[in-house]
Design a protein that fits this description.
By secondary structure, this protein is an alpha+beta fold. Helix content is 27%, strand content 22%. The protein contains 6 helices and 8 strands. Strands 1, 2, 5, 6, 7 and 8 form a 6-stranded antiparallel β-sheet that branches.
Length: 200
Amino acid sequence: IRTLKDFAREFPTVGLRLNVGSLGSIVDQVIKGDADIGIGGVPGEAEDVRLIEIGLVTMVPVASPSHPLARLKGPVPLEELREHTQLVVTDPSQRTRGRDFSVFAFRTWRLTDMHTKHLMIRAGLGWGGLPRWIIADDLRKGLLVELDLEPFGQAQGPFYAMHRIDRAPGPAASWLIDTVKSQLGCFNEAAPDGILPGPP
């Protein structure tokens, strides 16, 4: 929101359409021309798209303090973990069809976005992994508890801005990319030239 407020001041005549997606749907919107730029992780191949690494995202397993897993002492064994509902973001695109990422529970609830997952975990409806930069305040305030899981610790992956190879971003889109990269702060560990041809 802070970045968008700055954007409104910097480019007062530029309209903005913000689509919230996840996983492959972000890449698809850029490829189809529904979005000039995308920001997110990239599952699988990303043909026809230039990726600009803008930082790293650390996924942390968490639960509400009232959740049974949060009250266990020591590392949580897989057998215990499997008995509790895991909240999982599912790719609405076909890019990861039939694939799951870090799913351990027998019972899952499937969602299409991180924001809803975050709210549901805070409400105690299940456990799951969330990006550390989203939940840093919740962890400090005790609204969420980081879980010590035997089979699943923190996972880290690259975070990208992206655009179609045949459509270079204009001044406003370039400003957004640079500003989001700088806002990620300690998560930034981009390649020296900042541009990667595809997922590493």
